[in-house]
Automatic annotation (TrEMBL):
Protein name: Glycine cleavage system transcriptional repressor
Compartment(s) of residence: Cytoplasm
Domain ACT residues, every copy: 93-170
Pfam family, one: ACT_6
This protein's UniProt keywords: Cytoplasm, Repressor, Transcription
Keyword Transferase in annotation: no
Signal peptide feature range: none
Coiled-coil intervals: none
Chief localisation class: cytoplasm
């Protein structure tokens, strides 16, 4: 039976650090099912979903704290289950450029939540006081009124004085 473990590692970015971490996971006989890496300032963040037999996952859980200390990483681990694919009738994509300010991202995540969309990804980057935001959300209601949703999105964008904003719904 396959078991699953999510690992988040944060540490100072330096050559070979990710290789050492992924080698350790592989040496424990775990498979990296999914991963994301990002750099924030001089730090890197790596999130991995591992799979393996019970003993392999347990080996990672027991050996990673010492390896993390050796590599000067902060790590968090949590057992999880295999990801279940849900069927959504559509996917919404949002791309926004807006002058930065407190609470901007929260207002867009609130928009997603208020309209019953399931946030799937969020990427933001600040460039010379302009926040670039990309979001993907799943539309669970087959009867969603795309025009009405787009109008409400444009109203929010006008209120926040966005430089540019795109909102599209794509059938799955």
């Amino acid at each position: 039976m396959e078991h699953h473990l999510v690992i988040t590692a944060v540490g100072r970015d330096r050559p070979d650090i990710v290789n050492q971490l992924t080698r350790h996971v592989s040496d424990c006989d775990c498979n990296i099912v999914d991963s994301r890496l990002a750099l924030y300032g001089s730090e890197f963040t790596l999130i991995m979903l591992l799979s393996g037999h019970w003993n392999a996952i347990t080996r990672v859980e027991t050996t990673l704290p010492l390896k993390s200390q050796e590599l000067e990483l902060v790590t968090v681990m949590k057992r999880t289950s295999e990801h279940e694919q849900r069927h959504y009738p559509a996917r919404a994509t949002l791309k926004i450029r807006v002058p930065d300010g407190a609470g901007i991202i929260r207002q867009f995540t609130q928009f997603i939540s208020d309209h019953g969309l399931a946030l799937a990804s969020l990427r933001s980057q600040l460039d010379y006081q302009i926040l670039e935001l990309e979001m993907t959300a799943y539309v669970s209601d087959e009867q969603v009124d795309e025009a009405d949703l787009n109008d409400k999105f444009q109203q929010l964008c006008e209120k926040l004085k966005t430089e540019s904003a795109e909102f599209h719904i794509h059938p799955q």
